[in-house]
Amino acid sequence: MKKTILITGGGRGIGAACAIHAAQLGYQVCINYLADAAAAATVVDAIERQGGTAFAIQADIADEAQVERMFASIDERFGRLDALVNNAGVLSQQTRVDQMSAARIRRIMMTNVVGAMLCAREAVRRMSTRHGGAGGGIVNVSSRAAVLGAANEYVDYAASKAALDALTIGLSKEVAPEGIRVNGVRPGLIETGMHASGGEPGRVARLASSVPMGRGGLPREVAHAVLWLLSDEASYTTGSFIDVSGGR
């Protein structure tokens, strides 16, 4: 049987690249999205035109009931789950910590941390041999901001990604005996639309000179790292991270 993968935030950017590459590798792809149904449908269409299997499902991963509904839909449609890519994430306008509201911080943490943990919980309940599953893999899409701190821009986002790294390490140890590998990918400066949501569409061009390789990265370059970590080629790798950041 074909393996099934769920990619949160799979309608755009890194998530979309992961979805398309996963389909090329033979996965049945579940594409989660929050609001942009058209973008998710475009990814589904691209996969189906290549002969793959995909479907889009709307859910706000910060909402426990919606997460449970999403996983139940996957159960009903495919009857199995083999891989989860915790990719969905949000940030807000660039600012200093002394200008951040509690509402802003709460929004970031609810999606980037609580949402990722809820999805990981549901994935473990389905994949763990302790629960009758056949094993599987989880990749958390973090950020180099977790290491660098994103001062004067997104310290709250960086903190949320550092929490995601802690989840990766702790969960990997917890479920390794149950057939599940958990790893992380930390993208650096990548050409996606997320920079516009932070208020600076040209951020990659501005900072490219600070990258040792002299350029921003592409979503597909991140996707290849993600799918490698889920592959049998990484069968002895868990609790680890790949930095896809051009050396920055």
How does this structure look, described?
This protein is of the alpha/beta class and 248 residues long. It has one domain (4-244): 3-Layer(aba) Sandwich (Rossmann fold), CATH 3.40.50. Helices cover 45% and strands 15% of the residues. It has helices at 13-24, 37-49, 64-78, 102-127, 145-148, 155-175, 194-197, 203-207, 219-230; strands spanning 4-7, 28-33, 53-58, 83-86, 136-141, 180-187, 241-244. It has a seven-stranded parallel β-sheet with strand order 3-2-1-4-5-6-7, with helices on both faces. Strand 4, helix 4 (102-127) and strand 5 form a beta-alpha-beta unit. Helix 1 runs parallel beside helix 2 and helix 1 (13-24) crosses helix 9 (219-230).
